[in-house]
Amino acid sequence: MSAFYLTTPIYYVNAAPHLGHAYTTIVADAMARWRRLRGDRVWFLTGTDEHGDKISQAAAKAGVTPQAFADRNSGAFRETWRRLGITNDDFIRTTEARHTAVVQAILQRLWDAGEIYLGTYGGHYCFGCERFYTEKEIVGGNCPDHRTPLTWIEEENYFFRMSKYQGWLIEHVERHPDMIRPERYRNEILGFLRDPLQDLSISRPRRRLEWGIPLPFDDHYVTYVWFDALINYVSALDWPDGEKFRTFWPVAQHLIAKDILKPHAIYWPCMLKAAGLDVYRHLNVHGYWNVGGGKMSKSIGNVVEALALADTYGNDAFRYFVMREMTFGLDADFTEEALVGRLNAELANDLGNLVSRATTLIVNGGGLRRVPAEDELGEPERTIRSRGTTVVPDVDADMAEFAFQRALGRIWELVRLLNGYVDLTKPWELAKRQDRRLDVTLYTLGESLRFLGVVLAPFIPAAAAKIRAALGDTGQPSLGAATWGTLPAGTPVQKLSGLFPRVEDAKTSARREAASARRSAPAAHPTGASAHPTGASAHPTGHEAEATGRVSKDEFARLDLRVAEVLAAEAVPKSRKLLRLTVSLGTEQRTVVAGIAGDYAPADLVGKKVVIVANLEPVTLMGVESRGMILVGSASEGRLAVLTLDRDLPPGARVT
Ligand code: ME8
């Protein structure tokens, strides 16, 4: 069992948790879950950074003590992570005694070793960043980050002899090509190290700042917040003699965004070296989320509140989107439209459709009756088996590089392959012909779902658990279970539809609401095999329906209305309106064409019980013969709504 230690930055408590914090914490969580799935011993740390000017100023503004302010906002981070389902093993706060004791012990050690001296420093200081800037870094007299004027400050302070580690650090980075990754950030640091490294001011006079950890060797000063904060990564492991420190520090990996590259890639390794600790293994650096094409920042007012989005779209969909959309290491743009687009196309359509089709087919086809013999497997089954088997090591390799987007892309190739397999093998037809190949197909689908329920667990944990539960597995997922062909025959399977309901995009729904407000009450009427096979309008308007006049009870009784279960659905090629549905009436299966593609994706329908007119003359629409039509409600210009049952009835049940 190998050990795995992963940290996020400890976030400043002067701002509420937002999309950027959520991204880092979510990818760390997915990584921790992946490692647990492999059977590794995992320690996943996050926390809050609570000292320094920034917090002290924000607390003063809020009219509370820094401690009360930190308590409240640190709680907001913890609560956010709880609601997002984050599985951190520890949460460290820099105001905790376990942390301050370690910071002071390390400072004392460095002081005793002559690594720290008292000196005078004058420099351009940014209160926002809490650091001095060199002439080279200043942009037009302003802070390169905040774009606000810098203040010239001259004062006596304690300095850490960082400059003396420059040669050592360059050599260390060069000798460990994967220490800082992706490579662009390694190159950035090596570029920076071409200029002489300055010593680091590690104290702040107490007359200017009270809110910090006092220097153990001079009570007139508190510790510079970055020197304090970085030490959280070892104080949380009970340095120097904790068991956790011995187990996890040798395999430490940090995860940050590019904004805090320098403290992590330069100050921290030098601090570790000077204090006699090993350097961490990897610094994994991701890019920045931009919103509306610009930098996301509180002052610009475009901070996206993480929880609100996860609440709206669900934790799994939110996690999936951020991991799939951002190429780790590069910047990405966040838009709600892109989130909804991926949710509808990749989660509802690709994955939701597959799960609902496969579980419905398995249940209706008599379950997983037997494990197919090797010689029964055809080319498609072999392809699926080989992709299913290689997906685990491939995703593992992607995850080792923090390439979340690649890992998900790979899993989705398998999902699409499986949807194609259902289209190709048409299990509902095999069932109709009582073809022995049905068992092979259903087993292949069941086994594939089981694999997906495991490999998806780190990324979309709730949906993956539902997939596993549909196959009777409610235990902890494990990669050990991902051995192809070990799903026992007779495993109970339950239908699972609506795993990810489609979301309408906000603009469309606003338009629809406006349209429906202009109209009268909707009228239910049959559609599909309509008089408008070109797809111009597949259903009469409410006005036309009214004009059809009265029918007698006998006339109505001539209609044979039945409950039908949708087994499969697909678009009719070249038609914008028509969907071809394969439905079960219990004793028989039929093809029904319905003009509802404008309002329903095929995935939305599979597994649904609908009502059809079963005794209608067959008609051919766009080359597909339709035997029946499904009942749909609509208003004159609004959305169509397929009639479903409010209590379960078997397919074929009469509707009167
Ligand atoms: O820097 N895109 O805390 P912080 C992506 N306390 N990630 C983002 C982001 C964005 N637009 N904005 C923030 C600090 N982040 C220090 C860290 S560690 C010893 C001390 C994420 O609250 C990203 O992980 O400003 C970034 O590195 C971190 O939040 C900065 O959080």
The N- to C-terminal Cα distance equals: 63 Å
Percent helix, as a range, is: 40-55%
The percentage of residues in β strands lies in: 15-25%
Q: Domains counted in the coordinates: how many?
A: 3
CATH superfamily of the largest domain: HUPs
Broad CATH class of the largest domain: Alpha Beta
Number of helices: 22
The small molecules bound here are: ligand ME8
Would you write up a description of this structure?
- It is a single chain.
- With 656 residues, the protein is an alpha+beta fold.
- It has 3 domains: 3-315, HUPs (Rossmann fold); 335-482, Orthogonal Bundle (Isoleucyl-tRNA Synthetase, Domain 1), CATH 1.10.730.10; 513-655, OB fold (Dihydrolipoamide Acetyltransferase, E2P) (Beta Barrel).
- The chain contains 22 helices and 26 strands.
- The strands form 6 sheets. Strands 17, 18, 19, 20, 21, 24, 25 and 26 form an 8-stranded antiparallel β-sheet that branches. It has a 6-stranded parallel β-sheet with strand order 3-2-1-12-13-7, sandwiched between helices. Strands 5-4-6-8 form a 4-stranded antiparallel β-sheet, covered by helices on one side.
- The longest helix is centred in the middle third of the chain and has 29 residues, at 336-364.
- The protein starts with a strand and ends with a strand.
- The structure holds ligand ME8.
- Residues 9-12, 20-21, 23-24, 49, 229-230, 232, 256-257, 259-260, 288-289, 296 line the site of ligand ME8.
Short description:
This protein has 22 helices and 26 strands.
